[in-house]
Design goal:
Helices cover 28% and strands 22% of the residues. By secondary structure, the protein is of the alpha/beta class. The chain folds into 2 domains: 251 residues, TIM Barrel (Alpha-Beta Barrel); 167 residues, Lyase, Ornithine Decarboxylase, Chain A, domain 1 (Beta Barrel), CATH 2.40.37. Helix 8 packs parallel to helix 9. The mean pLDDT is 95. The structure holds pyridoxal-5'-phosphate (PLP). The site of pyridoxal-5'-phosphate has 17 residues, from helix 10.
């Protein structure tokens, strides 16, 4: 574990105001330098394994610019749907750069994954006959998702309950599936499992590795199959609270290396590659949501209402998840006021923080909601007619670059077929003093980056 550290916004108040003037709040902000630093730290931790590769979990942050940065650093992509496959293809990832891990899989998703040459990671043995109908010849390498059932524990701590999870094949099904795949001409097998989510326990990957390495050795002996890779998937957590220590990824890598040396090397399987599909650990701390305080309200509690809501960041409403909040420009001010920090949805769980100690807030303040770089914007939705926010990248050369424009009313009304809409939307915008469609950025690629104040 590394020591807890205070959370700082990635930009000053002045820089955030400059961005907000160009692209109004709320917006998600990503820090390119931090993304690159984290990937490299991860790669160093697993450099002992020759075939090591991170397949970034696209679902965590499906943005092509961010995927492009990760691809440039050597990552592949873990996709779970048609749209995610298209995104990954468009950043130039194909063939074995792609892992396709889905469950309840539409046939067209499989067709596209096959066409792109993705490694298929099967969630169930029943998918084998389905794929017989889609494949002319089976690929040389196929992966299987393992669910050991029961509970998954590290020492005496129960970490999760795979026996209740919908994913993966049972242990007997693994042997049967490998046999069926070998009969179909598959030559190399991958083994995958995702048993615990958002864990700060450094023992998780080493323990999972022991389980998968042992299973791989058994499968090799039972069926004679060649094991190409073991995919430990995602699940490593981050300290959402300032008081939590961060996972020491180098220690995690060393723990997996020790398990590898104990189980795979002596079995003559020292050439097995280690794959990961981290989402949260890699990107969550490299992103934040910047929002503005609209109203302060004193009733049975003191409320601060923001212009962001659960539609921009669902985790607090959905899981009661903690996200640290700082007030821009008052990062070091005493936290001597207590607020429920809310969005404007007609849902009482639309609260980014409950009874949170913060410096005194004023309408117009900018706040930074930390650690939203993964499973943040991606989980957005349109309840109450709210629009999804823009995504902006702080580039290594000190600029702010629009990498996804904010949703517009045109997007919201596009599927409804209301007469005159979306054409007439400017007349409504004008009534409310909003920028017209012509003044809104419609193409992130055409939008000039903003040079930020020091
Ligand atoms: C198959 C798979 N791989 C990887 C991930 C990424 O997980 P995390 O962001 O917790 O690392 C997920 C997340 O849901 C997943 O479903």
């Amino acid at each position: 574990m590394t020591l807890p550290s205070p959370k700082r916004p990635p930009v000053s108040l002045e820089a955030a105001e400059a961005i907000a003037k160009r692209w109004p709040t709320p917006f998600h902000l990503y820090d390119e330098a931090e993304i690159r630093r984290r990937v490299r730290e991860l790669q160093r931790a697993f450099a002992w394994n020759r075939g090591f590769r991170e397949y970034f979990a696209v679902k965590a942050t499906p943005n092509p610019t961010l995927l492009g940065i990760l691809a440039g650093e050597g990552c592949g992509a873990d996709c779970s749907s048609f749209a995610e496959l298209v995104l990954a293809d468009r950043v130039g990832l194909r063939g074995h750069d792609l892992m396709f891990s889905s469950n309840a899989t539409p046939i067209e998703d499989y067709r596209l994954a096959i066409d792109l040459g993705a490694i298929l990671n099967l969630d169930d043995i029943s998918h084998i006959p389905v794929l017989d109908g889609l494949l002319e010849t089976w690929p040389e390498t196929v992966s299987l998702r393992f669910n050991p059932g029961g509970v998954f524990a590290v020492t005496t701590d129960i970490m999760d309950n795979p026996g209740e999870a919908k994913y993966g094949l049972t242990r007997p099904q693994l042997t049967a599936a490998v046999g069926q795949l070998l009969e179909r001409g598959v030559k190399r097998i991958g083994l995958h499992a995702f048993l615990v989510s958002n864990t700060l326990a450094e023992a998780y990957y080493p323990k999972l590795a022991e389980l998968l390495f042992g299973t791989a050795v058994e499968l090799q002996r039972e069926t004679g199959c060649d094991i190409a890779f073991i995919n430990l998937s995602g699940g490593i957590g981050i300290p959402y609270r300032e008081t939590e220590p961060a996972v020491d990824i180098a220690a995690v890598g060393a723990g997996v290396e020790a398990a590898f040396a104990k189980i795979l090397s002596p079995a003559g399987m020292g050439d097995v590659a280690i794959f990961l599909e981290l989402g949260r650990w890699l990107l969550a701390p490299a992103g934040c949501l910047i929002a503005r305080v609209l109203h302060l309200k004193d009733t049975h509690r003191r409320y601060a209402g923001l212009d962001a809501c659960a539609a921009n960041l669902m985790r607090p409403a959905m899981y009661g998840a903690y996200h640290h909040i700082t007030v821009l420009g008052r990062e070091d001010a005493p936290r001597d006021h207590v607020y429920d920090v809310t969005g404007g949805l007609c849902e009482n769980n639309d609260k980014f923080a409950i009874q949170r100690e913060l410096p005194e807030l004023r309408p117009g303040d900018l706040v930074c909601i930390h650690d939203t770089g993964a499973h943040g914007h991606a989980m957005g939705y349109n309840y109450n007619g709210k629009l999804r926010s823009a995504e902006i990248l702080l580039t290594c050369d000190g600029r702010a670059r629009l990498i996804r424009r904010a949703e517009r009313l045109e997007d919201y009304f596009a599927t409804l077929g209301i007469s005159g809409l979306p054409g007439d939307l400017d007349s409504y915008r004008e009534r409310a003093g909003l920028r017209t469609a012509a003044d809104l950025d419609s193409d992130p690629l055409q939008t000039e980056p903003l040079v930020l104040p020091e």
